[in-house]
Design goal:
The protein is about 50% helix and about 15% strand. The protein is α/β, with parallel strands linked by helices. It has two domains: about 1-115, Rossmann fold, CATH 3.40.50; about 130-235, Rossmann fold.
Length: about 240
């Protein structure tokens, strides 16, 4: 199939390697990948801050760009929830309501797409390290993506998954929340780091690079050797 890959703006600007890993994985599975230049931002920062009127023009551009997409794969549980769930609220009662429903029905978060759409878990990946997994809030609570990433990690050669006690606890990033309440955000992130470090893992893996960016910053400041890595970057290694 032809897959429209939606790379969130912060991944495009700061962590392109995760998007590149997804392209390699999906092409290995025999699919054609397109990534429209106009597909830039889903409008979530403004939406989450309560500025719905400001979010709509950005979201409309995204909807129009995705209008004819066969299937959409998003490299983030957070942005995936925006398109699949929150667009339905944002455009309720408007002329874009039906298009929002159609686009939402064709949108998948990366791990969900592999496991539940393509029915693929074994990508012949090899990553000989101990890892622990962080469940991003939107992926876990809005998209119910607890099992797909773990099903994929279970098939990775040499990988040992060690669950942390606070796997489902928020890391404190929350996009604009971190900017508005930096002290609270930092305290939440530090608690998450403690839980991760206690596992003895080498890496924190997640579907959301926004969370990983936050946690890596805290780990680095603490002088901790633990690193963060996106799920796709694990799965692409052979």
């Amino acid at each position: 199939m032809t897959i429209t890959l939606f790379i969130p703006c912060f991944i495009d600007a700061m962590y392109p390697r995760a998007g590149i890993a997804m392209v390699h994985i999906l092409e290995r599975l025999g699919h054609k990948i397109v990534c429209p230049a106009d597909l830039i931002c889903c409008g979530q920062p403004a939406f989450n801050s309560g500025y719905w009127e400001e979010a709509r023009p950005i979201a409309v551009k995204t909807l129009e760009t995705l209008r004819k997409a066969e299937v959409i794969v998003i490299a983030s549980g957070s942005c995936g929830a925006m398109v699949k769930k929150f667009y339905l609220e944002l455009f309720a009662g408007t002329r874009y309501a039906e298009l929002a429903k159609q686009v939402a029905s064709r949108t998948w978060e990366f791990s969900d797409f592999l496991v539940n759409k393509l029915e693929v878990t074994d990508l012949q990946a090899c990553f000989p390290h101990k890892v622990t997994f962080h469940d991003g809030c939107h992926g876990l609570r809005e998209l119910n993506l607890k099992e797909p990433p773990r099903a994929l990690l279970a098939e990775v050669r040499g990988l040992e998954l060690i669950e942390m006690s606070e796997a489902e606890t928020c890391c404190g990033f929350g996009g604009t929340f971190a900017a508005r309440f930096p002290a609270i955000s930092t305290a939440m992130g530090e608690s998450k780091c403690v839980s991760a470090i206690e596992t003895g893992a080498d890496y924190i893996v997640s579907n959301d690079l926004s969370c990983l960016m936050h946690l890596q910053g805290l780990l680095t400041r603490q002088g901790a050797p633990m690193k963060t890595i996106h799920l796709a970057e694990v799965l692409v290694q052979q």
